[in-house]
Amino acid sequence: MCNIFAGQDRADYASVTRSVRLNGLSTSIRLEARYWRMVDEIAAAQGMTTPKFLSTLYDEVLDLHGEVLNFASLLRTACLVHLEQSAHLQPA
User: Fold this and answer.
1) Which domain holds residue 53?
2) How many domains, the chain?
3) Element (H, E) at 22
4) In a domain, 4, yes or no
5) Could you say which of 19, 26, 41, 66 is the most buried, measured as most Cβ atoms within 10 Å of its Cβ?
6) 3: in domain
7) 5, part of any domain
8) Is position 56 within any domain?
9) Is the distance from CB of 41 to CB of 48 less than 8 angstroms?
10) pLDDT at 19 over 80
11) 43 and 53 Cβ atoms separated by less than 8 Å
12) Is 90 exceeded by the pLDDT of residue 89?
């Protein structure tokens, strides 16, 4: 079992920083490469580019909560939510 986790390609968990524009301001977000791939997939599934998806998500969180405390963590948990929802949609 541990080989599934320990045997991961190191490139998958390497940190990748992307510069983005959120709410009109330039910033950078650091996520592991595997998370970035999933964020890209989620954006494509939403019919958006990744920058557009990030900006839209940021604005929606701002509207709902008044502030965005940790956007990188929000993105990681959004990936988990996406995986959980995908698992529920799979036929048994």
Assistant:
1) 11-89
2) 1
3) strand 15-22
4) no
5) 41
6) no
7) no
8) yes
9) no
10) yes
11) yes
12) no
CATH number reported for the structural domain that contains residue 26 in this entry: 1.10.3990.20
Give the DSSP H or E segment for 31. Answer: strand 25-32
Sign for the CA dihedral angle at 83, 10, 43, 91 comes to negative
Look at 3-7, 39-43, 48-52 and tell me which has the smallest mean pLDDT. Answer: 3-7
Span between the terminal Cα atoms of the chain, in Å: 23
Rounded to whole angstroms, the Cα distance separating 92 from 39 reads 26
Distance CA 61, CA 31 (A): 19
Categorize the per-residue pLDDT at 23 as very low, low, confident or very high, splitting at 50, 70 and 90: confident
Q: Which residue is associated with the tokens 């009109």?
A: 24
The rounded distance, in Å, linking the Cα atoms of 41 and 35 is 10
